[in-house]
Amino acid sequence: MGIGHDDDNEKQAVIDWTGGVPVARAFDDPYFSLGDGLAETEHVFLNGNDLPARLRAGFHVAELGFGTGLNALALARAWTGPGRIAMTSFEAFPMAHDDMARALSAFPELGDLARQLLSAWPGRRIAIGGVDLTIVQGDARLCLPGWQGQADAWFLDGFAPARNPQMWGDDLLAEVGRHTAAGGTFATYTAAGHVRRALSAAGFVVSRVPGYGRKRHMTKGVMA
C-alpha cells in the first residue's frame, strides 16, 4: 500500500498486528477496516466504481496499493464472466507470503480465490478466478508514467494521506487521470480536500459520498 523510493524495489512490508488486522509499521496504518475489511472493500472500491454492474470482458481495473490483495479478491468474486477482466496493481512494499496468508485467513468466504492468490504469491502475473492480475512493484510515481495501460476503474488505496502523503500528490493523481479511459472512474476511502481537488484537476468529476462504517465520507469520480 505504501509508496517507495528509487532503491525500494526489493523491500517487503514490515507488519505489526492489531488482532487479526495487519498494520504497516512504516505508516502506522491498518491495511483494512478493524471491522469488516471485505465489506469495506465492497462499499468503497466496488460500489464506488459502480461494480460489478459495469464489468464486461476486457474491463481493466488499476490500483494504487495492492496490500493484502483483498481488493483483487473482492473483484474476482464479483466477476463471474463470461470472458476475463484485467487488473494492474502498483505496490512498492509487497507483503511476505506468510503475512498475506494470515491477513486473508480472516475472510474464509474468499476460499478458493484466496488460495489461488497465495499459491502464486509473490508473483508478477497471477490468475484469480476470471481476473488476470499484474503486479507492478516499485514507486508508483516512477512506474505509472511509463505504464501503457488505460484503466476503466481505479482503486486508490494507499495509506492515509496524512501518513503517506507521497501517494496522494498532485503529480501522481494527474497520472491517474492520464491513464483513465473515457468514462472511467475512481473510488477511494479518503475525503481529504487536497485529494479531491487534485483528482478534479486531473479531469474527473468528483463527488464526496457516504463512507464505510464510522467513516462519514469517501470520494469517487468519473472522467469527464
Cα Rg: 16 Å
**What is the N-to-C succession of helices and strands?**
EEEHEHEHHEEHEHEHEE
Please outline the major beta sheet.
8 strands, mixed
* Count of structural domains: 1
Per DSSP E runs of 2 or more residues, the count of β-strands stands at 11
Classified by CATH, the class is Alpha Beta
Shape: globular
Q: What is the strand arrangement across the widest sheet? A: 6-7-5-4-8-9-11-10
Number of helices: 7
Query: According to CATH, what is the topology?
Result: Rossmann fold
Which secondary-structure class do the elements indicate? Answer: alpha/beta
Name the CATH architecture: 3-Layer(aba) Sandwich
Strand content: 25-35%
Low-confidence stretches: 1-9
Q: How far from one another are the termini? A: 27 Å
Keywords:
224 residues, alpha/beta, Rossmann fold, 8-stranded mixed β-sheet, 3-stranded antiparallel β-sheet, globular
Produce a short descriptive summary.
The chain is an alpha/beta fold. The protein has helices at 37-46, 70-78, 97-104, 111-120, 140-143, 170-178, 193-201, and strands spanning 15-18, 21-24, 29-30, 60-64, 85-91, 125-128, 131-137, 151-156, 180-188, 204-210, 217-223.
